[in-house]
Description:
The complex is a heterotrimer.
Chain A: H1 2-8, H2 12-32, H3 36-62, H4 70-89, H5 100-119, H6 124-144, H7 146-149, E1 155-156, H8 173-196, H9 198-208, H10 210-215, H11 220-246, E2 248-249, H12 256-269, H13 276-294, H14 298-312, H15 316-329, H16 337-366, E3 374-376, E4 379-381, H17 386-418
Antiparallel strand pairs in A: 1-2, 3-4
Helix pairs in contact in A: 2-8, 3-8, 3-11, 3-12, 3-13, 4-5, 4-11, 5-11, 8-11, 9-11, 12-13, 16-17
Chain B: H1 2-33, H2 40-58, H3 60-87, H4 91-113, E1 129-133, E2 136-139, H5 140-162, H6 164-174, H7 176-181, H8 186-211, H9 218-233, H10 238-257, H11 262-266, H12 275-282, H13 285-289, H14 292-303
Antiparallel strand pairs in B: 1-2
Helix pairs in contact in B: 1-5, 1-6, 1-8, 1-9, 1-10, 2-3, 2-4, 2-8, 2-9, 3-4, 3-8, 5-6, 9-10, 9-14
Chain C: E1 2-3, E2 32-38, H1 45-64, E3 73-79, H2 84-96, E4 101-104, H3 108-124, E5 130-133, E6 150-152, H4 157-169, E7 177-183, H5 186-202, E8 206-213, H6 222-231, E9 235-238, H7 243-254, E10 260-263, H8 271-275, E11 283-287, H9 291-296, H10 300-312, H11 321-337, H12 343-350, E12 354-357, E13 360-364, E14 371-372, E15 375-381, E16 394-401
Parallel strand pairs in C: 2-3, 2-4, 4-5, 5-6, 7-8, 7-9, 9-10, 10-11
Antiparallel strand pairs in C: 11-15, 12-13, 13-14, 15-16
Pfam families (chain C): Peripla_BP_6
Protein name (chain C): Branched-chain amino acid ABC transporter substrate-binding protein
InterPro entries (chain C): BCAA_transport, Leu-bd, Peripla_BP_I
Amino acid sequence: MATNTAAGGASNLLRFWPWVVIPLLALILPQIFDSRHGITLLSHMGIAIIFALSYNMLLGNTGLLSFGHAVYYGLGAYVAMHVLRMVNDAGGEGLPLELIPVVGAAAGLFFGVIFGSFSVRRAGVVFAMITLGLGALVHSSSLMFSDFFGGEAGLFGNRVAAPSLFGVDYGSNTNTYYLVVAWALIAAIFIYLLRKTPLGWMANAVRDNPERAQFVGYNPTIVRFIQFALAAMFAGLAGGLFVITDEIVNDESVGQIQSGIVLLGTYIGGIGYFIGPMVGAALVTVLESSLSSYTEAWVLYFGLLFISIVMFAPMGLVGIVHTQYLTWKAGGWKGNTGIRLYMLLAGLVGIFGAICVIELSYHYFRSWDPSAPFGLMGFTVNATTALPWLVSFGIAIIGFGLMLFHGKPMLARRISATSEGGNA
Amino acid sequence: MFETIAYSILNGVLYGTLLFMMSSGLTLIFGMMGVLNFAHASFYMLGAYFAYTLGLATGFWVALFLAPILVGAAGALVERYGLRRVHQYGHVPELLFTFGLAYVIEELVALFWGTVPVPYKAPASLDFTAFSLMGLDYSMFKVFILLVAIVMFVGLWLLLKKTRAGLVIQGALSRPDMVGALGHNVPMVFTFVFAFGCALAGLGGVVGGIQFVTDPGMAFMMGPIVFVVVVLGGLGSVPGALVASLIIGILQTFFLSINFSLAGAIGSLGIEDSGFFGVLWHMETTRIAAVLPYLLLVLTLIFRPRGLFGKREA
Amino acid sequence: MQLNKKAGLFTGTMIGLSMAVSTVTWADNHPIRISYIEPLSGPFANVGDAGLKHFRFAAEKLNNEGGILGRDVEIVAMDNKQSPSESVSLVQRSVDNGINFVTQGNGSNVAGAIVEAVDRNNRRNDDKVLYLNYAAVDPALTNERCSFYHFRFDANSAIKLEALSNFMTTRDDEIDKIFLINQDYSHGQFISKRMKALVDEKLDAEVVGDVLHPIAQVRDFSPYVSRIEQSGADTVVTGNWGNDLSLLVRAIDSAGLDVNTYTYYGGGLGTPAAVGPRGEDILFQVSEWHADVNVDEGLEEYEKWFVEFKERYPEIDWYYHRIYNQMHMLKNAIEEVGDADDVVAIAKAMEGMEFQSPTGTVTMRAKDHQILQPMYISVMDADAKYDADNSGVGFRTVANIPVEEATDTTSCDMRRP
Lengths: 424, 314, 417
């Protein structure tokens, strides 16, 4: 599996630059997106990153596909919320706000140990199905046990009515954002270091070949169990942070959609890379929140993006960049850079055409008056006439066609001409 | 009590046969290809929508045959141009591919047919009361569903046991490598089985869409239950799927039909209806019925991962 | 294709485009904007879309009459995907964009989150925002969780049950055994609890069954119908909405059961079409208005409004009378204050406000910001002048509940700025 090389043998550059660039970005971004909504979005990205990193401890490192990881995120959030409310009720005396996420982490660990004890005996489909069932069970229970879960209205808390370790006023979104950044950094460092421990290596071994791992003397079930419990702990930490930024928690935080989103984000980013889930989670958070402002078809785009990644780039977005980077470094771009750029351009044109087709379809089928003038990519068109459809389909077909049937063979010819058997 | 039991069996069988129509295809696909098709319920939904749209032009009876064929064709395309490509990466990407596909199909259905339920109704020739039992009327359509399911089970059984194609599929279910070694075109068999499984789900949709609601949410609602059936019955086992469908159908109907809680049966014993155990104590079976399939799913996987009739573990 | 001078601006009243910027937006006067926070994608998109059309239509009518303070009203659509936490961040986005009013109605859980977000924002920031709730009926929002910045223009669940039970006392001779079936979440749980108390208190009838079922998960209601049959009930009371209601009524009908079903949302989007003539004379609803009220009471102006809406959007009907009340009361309050940005003053002007609605005088109760209005009990009828959603069936009034009988007591202890 290519994952091995990515996790272990990546170049130094890839290994260290994220630790400089990402924190730097985390400090610069709030200066650019300084509206309240912007800051909240950034906080949500930070939380999603922790959550996705914890998810990748299962999927990427241990080969466990979970459809119910939100259970630990959500339960962590609920427990943290109860503690926050206790602090609120005590008139703001008790656990400092900065440590509330630790409560979430503890709760995540607790439930991870309980549920993990029986779900990790087998990997693969059995594990996936157990997590699916558990996810559904916990989600349904959240509406039944309204004492703890607060029913479908959820629970509310007040982050301001809690003491701070450093005397910070958390009424401001920006301050909570920095709290999220701090915790995200701590979590990322821990998760990264965990990969470098014998446990992390054994997790990889268990993922790739459980029998062989067993022969070497490691019980795959125990390795999976520890990874699972630790992943649940970090998920709970993310849940605890969510309580602080949003001051509300309800059944959607333990729900299947939440579980699905973390899976999508992690996979889109790239499960073979440490920064893959970070990139994916950030992207998905932004898309989910802002794409829906621009187009009704955002769920479709989302699904298509995911399917394309699964089909054509199983190593995720980071994988695409990394593969190209390695090829470039190995001199694989020499003499064919132009063709690569040409293919990229043709592909982008094709995507542009496809987007036009989808937008036209949504307007045509969903609008109460399809013939109403419709702004598409800077043009005003009438979706009931043939012209915009022909043009859009044309662009899509030409773009993809050129990429696949002109650029791709050309690239292959050029590569085989320059180097015997060389491959990108 | 007798009334309740009789009623549960009757309605449970009706519900169970519908579950069977969907899950038989899924269990075949899994047994053969190792793919747990997340989008299976989406093909069920396509069956309902195709039948509704075709039915507007051709009437119900033609649609009953055409819609599953169309769904099967869609399934074949998905297998040939999607799954086969992903196959090389392993089972997890396959699962994820169908996971994403379920989203896309739901969106496309909502795009073409809208988010509101479509008025997909039983044909007039089946829309009358067939018989009454204990004060409740049963429409002819329900009887028809039962007939379709029986025909389907018998047909499937004959196909698998008595035909050459069935033998190949059976062989491929247990030893795919051997079937390949014997010179059969395994990828072709895969495409065929996938298309066939989807067509079965489509047939389920043709009748299920009438019995329940035809809206873009129907796949999401049915999806998890179908998994439960397949896991409980044993992955890859068609008789297992039948038995599991009936068990779940009857059990769920029974839980809904009785009025039972521990507190009601034993007495509240001073336990208040709050706190974890208090709520459990007072929990009525009707409220448990909804989570019952998931409970079965988890318990089966913990204690008997190969299910009731499965030959090998998942 | 011609080049669009306003490149990037989406034109028209396209559905589902959150943050849609309509062409009239940047005219000479800058508009008074209202954020409309509802699901515009996903399974509930049809409901969110219908509400948006109501608001856009009402805004246009106001604008044609000169708007508010001479300024246009603009509805800014925001897609919350029916998620409470998404709604919270949309409230923030509204405040960021300088919008002073948000409106929402679908889902009491979302409403609760918005109340919380609005309160929190107004406590911590100077840019304040007002929440106008047009459909979330959870009584808690005007009781223990009431807020100065929240106004409810729909009758809450307690009031609807009050009106319903008052009506039922007039039908005591035909109502003996009542069966309650509701969705298993706070809305349904409240109805189940409160209705039992009301039956004990007022009616000469007994509750023979009380069932909670999971929300939006039941595909086959026949097991529930068998329980209704076995209980011998003659009346069913349900707060179900959407598919849960249509499926229930269809199951009752196809089993040939002879019961009357009293609902909150029998006339709600999609339900008349799904139920059809099967609901005739057995499906009742309690609401603040329905289309044939205009005919019965000779409300010609309002009938014109209704017809015009139908011409604009042939596939749905004007259904939310509260939106009419809400928009007009907001206009009155802003014009009384003379400043659309002084949110606190507008809220104070709205408190206790009386408004001459087509159906009679409605009052915004100052104590908890709950509207009090006359209610109607109506039954599905194929002979109604206006059918709902082109279904062939409409509603006929069977009783008019005066304001005094459609009220509740409140435990609200409001914190005022």
